[in-house]
Design a protein that fits this description.
Blueprint: H1 2-21, H2 23-39, H3 47-59, H4 74-79, H5 94-98, H6 100-106, H7 112-154
Helix pairs in contact: 1-7
């Protein structure tokens, strides 16, 4: 049992170290994937488009760096900036969303990349605290399992 707990403890420890060491690569991959999702964005309900809409609605952001990122997409040439960027859904017309200067007043201007990464970084302390607590319980379990094993081997009972 102690060996199994030790193995789980080591796996969690390695995962935490790898996540910490490669956090910049994770950010870079997220940014490039968000750019790809914007480029391939369409009206049909595919997973990437739904994810972009959810992020933009939830975090009140638009585009990767800012709302003007949509200008480089094929979707913008057809329909303008998506409705998920609108501050007020009732006040956003398609004509306004096709003109960047008008859209600036009606959509969220901040980009999603900074908001997502800052939200993740602000929650990291909570995740680290919970992980540290779980690791402490695992270490206590390992120590108690070793003590129990030692107690059993020192007090051999006669087989009847």
């Amino acid at each position: 049992y102690a060996m199994l707990l030790s193995l789980i403890f080591l796996i969690v420890l390695v995962a935490a170290v790898v996540g910490f060491v490669f956090r910049h690569e994770i950010k870079t991959n997220f940014e490039s994937n968000l750019n790809l999702a914007l480029r391939d964005y369409n009206v049909t309900a595919d997973q990437h488009s739904e994810a972009v809409d959810t992020i933009q609605r939830t975090l009140h952001c638009c585009g990767v760096q800012n709302y003007s990122d949509w200008e480089k997409t094929e979707y913008f040439t057809k329909r303008g900036i998506p409705q998920s960027c609108c501050k007020n859904q009732d006040d956003c017309s398609e004509e306004d969303l096709k003109d960047l200067s008008k859209a600036k007043l009606k959509v969220f201007v901040d980009g999603c990349f900074f908001l997502v990464t800052s939200t993740m970084e602000s929650k990291m302390s909570v995740v680290a605290g919970i992980s540290f607590g779980i690791a402490c319980f695992q270490l206590v379990g390992i120590i108690l399992a070793c003590c129990l094993s030692q107690y059993i081997t020192n007090n051999q009972y006669e087989m009847v």
